[in-house]
Design a protein that fits this description.
single chain; alpha/beta; globular; binds adenosine monophosphate
Amino acid sequence: MKAILLLGAPGAGKGTAAERIRDAAGYIHVSTGDMLREAVKQGTAIGREADGYMKSGALVPDEVMLRLVEARLQAGGPEDAYMFDGFPRTVRQADLLDQVLQRGGGGIEHVFFLDSPRDVLIQRLTGRRICRACGANFHQTNMPPKRAGVCDHCGGELYQRPDDCESTIISRLDVYNQKTESLIERYRLKGLLRRIDSSGGADKLAQDVLRVLQKS
Ligand code: AMP
């Protein structure tokens, strides 16, 4: 069981890059944000626990996240290659991921740190729109759909995530700085970190990541 990680602040482009890398390189995409939003929608026990934290832009407690991710990986086999998007976000989560991957006879191959300046992150998050049906990402100005409010891929309705309002965005960026940023150093010291400038748009970002994957 091996994995690559997409690490970076909210708005760094993890979700959009993940869609393209999944299609081009065949990794199993695990987005803990998507899993939690689905759990909230279904009204599961985890969804009910997570809802309030997500609305305020706080992190869902590690205990909940560890249950969610362990259950997701339990079904996996030794040959599986995962791409984590939005996980780990704390040191405890990173420790757990190391343990689970090692148990599965593998480990982390690369950690892609997607780096963009703060004003770019805020502009991306405030304009982001997502398809309710298939989850595809759009942006009002950077990546507009062909028809306003309608998904290019499946015709689904586009919506704005409730935590993409400006005050919650600021909280999420602060939480990232306090809880997640230190992971950059952890993976740099392990020789796994690849810094990718993610301010230049989704296509370039995905190409930069794919170039590293092709070489390895
Ligand atoms: P995302 O879609 O990755 O921006 O995540 C949306 C929200 O889900 C975050 O603001 C957190 O409340 C929660 N969340 C997602 N992944 C994690 C994680 N690894 N640890 C804790 N909370 C998470």
